[in-house]
User: What shape does this take?
Amino acid sequence: MEGHTPIFCVGVLDSLAVELKVTKDFSKLYAGIAILGYIASVPESVNTQAFSHLLTFLGHRYPKIRKALAEQVYLVLLQNGELVTEDKMEKVLEIISETCWEGDIEEAKQRRLELHDMAGLETGLLPKIGNGASNRDGEKRPTASDENASYSSLVGSTRF
Assistant: This one.
C-alpha cells in the first residue's frame, strides 16, 4: 500500500486544484486547505506539489481563506523544513507571519510571489484562482478589490 500513496496523493491534488478554484463554499475551502497541508507535510515526492498549491492559493479572493492558508503554510514549514532551504526559512516564516493576509489582495499576491521565489518554485504558470469568475450569462464579473465587494458577490451568488 505504501507504494500507492504518491499516486493517490497526486489524484487528490488534481481534484483539489480543480474544485478549490471554483468553489465559494467556505467549509469545502477549509477542508481542502487541511488536505493540502497534510499532503505537503508527508515525506513523499508529491509534497512539493501540494506546497506549491498552498502558496498559489495565498492569492485567493476571500481574505479569511488567505489567512487560513497562511497559517497552514506556516505549520507545514515547521513540520517539513525540507520545502525551503535552511538559509531562507527564517525570512519565509517572517513574511508569512508579518503579512496581513486579510488585507489588500495585491499585497497578498506580491508576498505570494516572494514566497514562490524563495521556495524555488516556478511562478510563471500561477493559475488564476477565484477571481473574475463568469456569471450564468457567460459575462465576466469584475474582480473584487476589497473584502466587502468579495463577500457581496458571494452572497449574491447564493441568492440571499
